[in-house]
Amino acid sequence: MPPLPLAFPYPLRIGTDICRVARIAHILRSRQGARFIRRVLAPEELARARPAVHQVLRVAAAQQAGEEEERAKGSARQEDEADEAKGGDLDAYARAATYMAGR
Q1: Is 3 within the bounds of a domain?
Q2: What is the pTM of this model?
Q3: Are the beta carbons of 52 and 92 closer than 8 angstroms?
Q4: CA–CA separation, 52 and 43 (whole Å)
Q5: 8 A C-beta contact, residue 15 and residue 91
Q6: Where is this region: Disordered (predicted)?
């Protein structure tokens, strides 16, 4: 039986999480995007988050306000209007998703 490897002299425990940035970007584009950001980031992290994260939060808030307004009017939301409300800035979603993946 081979000898056991020697223990590292310092008690370090390093963990690595693997996630798909595309999956996070999909979540950020969904109705749960703002909720996801607020659940992952602590208030201090949110205060110093990248501008792309704040842009996603603003778009989500505008979307939610638009949905509430449409519910009050009783009209159904069309798919192309939803894409338009998201701002079409896919680069901002990619930047925000990359930032969130590092958290």
Answers
A1: no
A2: 0.61
A3: yes
A4: 16
A5: no
A6: 60-90
